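Morning run. Coffee first, then this:
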Amino acid sequence: MASAKLFMKSGHPPTLLAAFLYFDFSFAIWVLNGAMGPFISEQFHLSPQQIGLMVSVPTLAGAFMRFPLGVISQYIGRKNAAIVEMSAIIVALMYGFFFVKTFNNVLAMGVLLGIAGASFGVALSLGSGWFPQQYKGLAMGIAGAGNSGTALASLFAPRLAMHFGWSHVYGFAAAMMCLPLVVMIFFAKEPPDHEHLTLKEHLSCLFEADGWYFNLIYIITFGGFIGLATFLPSFYYAQFHMTKVQAGTYTVLATFTGSATRVVGGYFADRIGGITTLSVVFLVAIAGLFGLMSAPSLLVTTLLFMLCFAALGAGNGATFQLVPLRWPLTTAVAGGMIGEIGALGGSVLPNVLGYSKQHTGSFSSGWIAYAALAVVVLFVMRIVARSWTKTWVGPGGRALASTAIDPRATVVTGEGLRVAS
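And here it is:
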């Protein structure tokens, strides 16, 4: 209880709440086509490969939009960037409500839904910006728990689609998006951990090896999370021949688990280190993915999905405990870049699973491919972590004592830490 009070007093809780709602509602809209996948596929008689393409387009579009929004937020402020983005999301949803009539329209709408997927880096940086380094992991975990939006979409979208038609769900979503927009306008405050750097300095993380190591990690943790979250309704509907609403309900069980453990991942990463936490969750996720290869029963499949999502969610939280330690002055930009590449991994997974199902009659090849990639990334991370703990982070990935004093006091370079001028 005492540590919770210290955490709340160390930052600005209303901004953290605004960041959570912003990310939560944006995430729900980002995966909307995936949540309504069984309805859309039935109307347009889609093949497994077409379903994979349909649910991956918003993920792919969101991935490409994340980094530019992160850069823009460094110049107009994270709060203003969030307000602009949410306004654009509402306009996009109204297009879906009035004009989506064909499968090509659905694909175009997927691109527009990608606007919502761009929120990640800005939301996490905004939510954690008021908190000192020793609480960054927990603050980012709370803001990042907004990926529970996948559960909201899976729970409500199929039910609304059943009663009103799936295209009308876009209209309901536009109305609901007004809530986080109002909260952001009236309650959030721009964090003080902001310095205007040159564009070259903002983009420097693109040219550093560490940035690409983080990209690989996030392809597995977040890419796996968003890829599975968007594909699961269609997977359950096809694999177990259940109703569309039931498919959404089972998806909620899995995705909500991953959303809740994101906070847990950030919490443990603050205490035992992000590297240690990531090592554990990778092993758990790999075991779960290999378990899915045998096409088990509905109960076992759901339990394995819950296990995988729990691990992936915790891995997302642990990853973003490390990011502000590595890039303390450009967290939003670095987070946007890492989130962009990670989301690209999420756009690949549904297509791999759809291709596997259509050409082999089973999803097993898709699970094997992603599990094998996770093994490779874990091996790479354990190797490069040896140099990380000698330069910018403590044993196991804990924050160094020097970085816990002032988040603006140090800048990480290729050679390690230096004092900011």
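The chain has one domain: 15-189+200-408. Good start to the day.
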